[in-house]
Amino acid sequence: MIAQTGSIPRSSAAAIASSLRLKQYPGALPRLGLFISKSASLPEILQLAPPCSCEDCGHGCTMGSGFLAEGDKEKLAAFLGISVQSLEKEYLEETYLFNKKVWKPKLLREGKPYGKCVFYENGCKVHPSKPLQCKVAMGCKEYGEELQLWFMLNHLIDKEDPESVRQFAQYLKAGGKTLPGGELNDLVPDKKQLREILSYERLR
Length: 204
Ligand code: SF4
Ligand code: SF4
What we know:
Layout: H1 10-20, H2 42-47, H3 55-61, H4 72-80, H5 84-91, E1 92-97, E2 100-105, E3 107-108, E4 116-117, H6 132-135, H7 144-156, H8 162-173, H9 184-187, H10 191-198
Antiparallel strand pairs: 1-2, 3-4
The structure holds iron/sulfur cluster (SF4) (2 copies).
């Protein structure tokens, strides 16, 4: 299996990094032997996130739900045999992250700020078509955090939206992590443009 980290021999790590087109960087070698960059493709990421299912991940589904990416609504609606409109109405809720509207399965909050995902019942009822963020939730793997950062950088932050970039800048300032290729100046390479965004001279 890909990236059983920790005990992974350095030569194997190099082979995996090469096959995944993930770059290596010296700082990561002791921990993982490879690193995931913002530009890793979805197929590359999914190689690190096999469609496994067990109780440990299920615990997270009792406390929240994962965000959908582009195209997920259609896949989920087809899996359930309903229209996208029905899916939104019956099973999804929307929220904003980095100034972007994102959808997630409804939470059964029962008066609490958190709650069980509407699709959770002794496991994920929509496992083959679950939201992309759920698919890349590999909390038991050493690289689980990197997968979530990859999702954030590619599916939550909109580099074309100055407000999204500003909120990302605040996130970084507060100590938020990112991936190689996911620094502010990677998202907005033009220094003048970035300065204008951060100083609110550029609003849209
Ligand atoms: S990622 Fe790990 S904890 Fe989650 S379902 Fe797979 S094996 Fe279980
Ligand atoms: S869609 Fe499935 S994996 Fe995602 S939070 Fe809900 S029950 Fe868990």
